[in-house]
């Protein structure tokens, strides 16, 4: 049993990880299969047969108002998703309406379906987190490994670079990138976050390289004629995988919060992507400055504001709690001595 | 601490401090490179229609967009500009009119390059160039004026002028005239300076400083008057002007020099070498944004002033929250470690997770409606809540790791209670690893701080940054990132030093220059 397998089996056995995976997993599935829950076009339409037109021709339906799409499919046999609206569809219900059959969570201040906004917001947030973490993993592993293997001046330089980048606020990098581009894109945001996050990975990888280079198995591999690159990838990196992945999962929460903060503050040009932060900002401005301020009792805008605040807040909460639970389970798997909960059972064999 | 250790500590501090400079330089260069690709508002094609091409070119020049980014191999000084203008006038054609205006603008500073070069031209070309100098003659009040306007005699007029008055166009002479004018003031010295026209600008600027009292106001007025005369920019210190408006006027002239100064200067030797770096966008930024002459925010406040004022709010928020978070987190972490695998430990974990997961923005919005706008206390507390988790977890595992050490087992075997073990053996080792997390928490907290500033209506860095991104205000973004980087670098440096001071086990390998893990 390899070290990674041991870690994996410990994480699998953890109840905390199970809860976390369930929470983040549901959101991830919502994000991946967003079109099945909320789409401007039907899932299936007959005569002529169309399967998932909102995915196949997504640019055709993106900005159409709901009434137009409804008219397009009137009188045909169709299977609609739960919500007949995409994240940018102008609904017929109008802005700030309460929950109804057509719109389970109501609509937002600009007349778009709230549930659709949130579901596609999960795609934006988690997609950004996944992309940024993968990019920073690649960059951080390469640079951290280089620093650990080369030593000397390059090591010093990279250590300083890592320190500087690690302590540079991500939100400022995002602001710089947003100022640079004319039309904001998801890719640039991924790059911006990766620019900051790689440093943490590099720090972890470098520490592991330095620690492992004095270990017997590394010496043995070198004695057998393995090249430094081979030793790095086959012997050292596997030991570093645990801390790196844990930091990555911990990073999900901070990236999702960062994305929410960016769209809450509306830094840069407005994006086309749905975002929880944008919905929160709508709710906040409504709650703090109610348009028709009533003297007493909850005005209609107050309930709308509450809905616009609490719904994305709940999605954020689920993401953060879920990723925190998974990351903690992973950390506990690596440090069973200090872990919470029941102590790990003694192994029958002395392997691993 | 032994003397040897402290010497090594100082050496280590020095080595670390040496790294600060290249780090900050690199950060500023990289950020500048980044920001130089920000589309400038003057690139808007509608602007050309609105203001005309010449005005847009001027605007771009004032924003240094005509300069290369980092290195200027051929800075355009008065010699290059005069030569270009001359050849354009000599050739005639549609570009000649612009060139004539350019030559008139360059004025006296161009004469040392133009008049000797007249000999190389043929008669008609020489006449055209000499005629183009007529506005300069008028400005310098040369007589007889009709000679300078006569195509037949203009060239001869200027050649005679140069033979006669050429020796006045010498740096040392003009510089001492300026100095004496600034010190004693006198109409004749001012006349002398007007007689060399724009040639004097290069020497007037160093003598010009924002006035602080009556006498300096007088000399600044005299100098500004000459500048206004020779450049045809009617921006003077009026006789009834107070100190503030006079200072603003002097600042405008210094800013003018920052943009157009090189037009009136002949670059040779060392100054050409300096211009290689200073006549670039990066050089201009370093010189002028940092000296707060050019960089202005949207409200017209110098960037550095605005940065200082706003940073006070944001930094109080961020560091206050971190301090508060540590005050909550450390006891929680200790409690959790001491009661490991019992109900209290689990309770702490639940509290920490709850604090961590609560969406700060939502709660802030709820609280802001109740009250507390414009007050720093509530946002600080709110920001702190989200920051508790990381140090609490770190404190718990660091303390546990310490408690599993052999010497602690030995102490317990000898009868030490849990309290004594935690306080005497555990805390000492576990507090510092937790404290070093601060440098990583601050940049993470900044995003949350921006959101809270918005919700509570505090005029912090966030508000200005969002506006700067909207208006593509490079000066602000540049200053902000440089500020953040300096703060971060100093933070890392301090943590490192405190670490080495506090923990001799860490100190020894670090000070010996060993590679750190």
How far apart lie the N and C ends of chain B? 24 Å
- The strand order across the widest sheet of chain A is 2-1-3
Rg of chain A computed from alpha carbons, rounded to a whole number of angstroms: 25 Å
Largest sheet of chain A: 3 strands, antiparallel
Mean pLDDT of chain A: 84
Q: What descriptors fit this protein?
A:
heterodimer; A: 352 residues; mainly alpha; 66% helix; B: 517 residues; 28 helices
Descriptive account of the structure:
- The complex is a heterodimer of chains A (352) and B (517).
- With 352 residues, chain A is mainly α.
- In chain A, 66% of the residues lie in helices and 2% in strands.
- Chain A contains 14 helices and three strands.
- In chain A, strand 1 and strand 2 form a beta hairpin.
- In chain A, helix 1 (3-13) packs across helix 14 and helix 9 packs antiparallel against helix 10 (186-212).
- The longest helix of chain A has 38 residues, at 228-265.
- The radius of gyration of chain A is 25 Å and the shape is elongated.
- Chain A starts with a helix and ends in an 18-residue tail after the last helix.
- Chain B is built from 28 helices and no strands.
- Chain B has helices at 3-35, 45-51, 53-62, 78-91, 96-106, 111-118, 123-132, 134-139, 145-149, 154-165, 171-184, 187-195, 201-207, 214-231, 243-260, 269-278, 281-290, 303-338, 343-357, 360-370, 377-387, 389-403, 406-413, 418-435, 438-456, 461-471, 474-502, 504-511.
- The radius of gyration of chain B is 33 Å and the shape is elongated.
- The model of chain B has no long low-confidence stretch (mean pLDDT 82).
- Classes of the chains: A mainly alpha (352), B mainly alpha (517).
Q: What's this model, at a glance?
A:
With 352 residues, chain A is an all-alpha fold.
Helix-strand blueprint:
The complex is a heterodimer of chains A (352) and B (517).
Chain A: H1 3-13, H2 15-32, H3 34-37, E1 44-45, E2 50-51, H4 53-56, H5 58-61, H6 66-72, E3 78-79, H7 114-150, H8 152-166, H9 170-180, H10 186-212, H11 216-223, H12 228-265, H13 276-288, H14 300-334
Antiparallel strand pairs in A: 1-2, 1-3
Helix pairs in contact in A: 1-14, 2-7, 2-14, 7-8, 7-10, 7-12, 8-10, 9-10, 10-12, 11-12, 12-13, 12-14, 13-14
Chain B: H1 3-35, H2 45-51, H3 53-62, H4 78-91, H5 96-106, H6 111-118, H7 123-132, H8 134-139, H9 145-149, H10 154-165, H11 171-184, H12 187-195, H13 201-207, H14 214-231, H15 243-260, H16 269-278, H17 281-290, H18 303-338, H19 343-357, H20 360-370, H21 377-387, H22 389-403, H23 406-413, H24 418-435, H25 438-456, H26 461-471, H27 474-502, H28 504-511
Helix pairs in contact in B: 1-27, 1-28, 2-3, 4-5, 4-7, 6-10, 11-12, 11-14, 14-15, 18-19, 18-21, 18-22, 18-24, 18-25, 20-21, 20-25, 21-25, 22-24, 26-27, 27-28
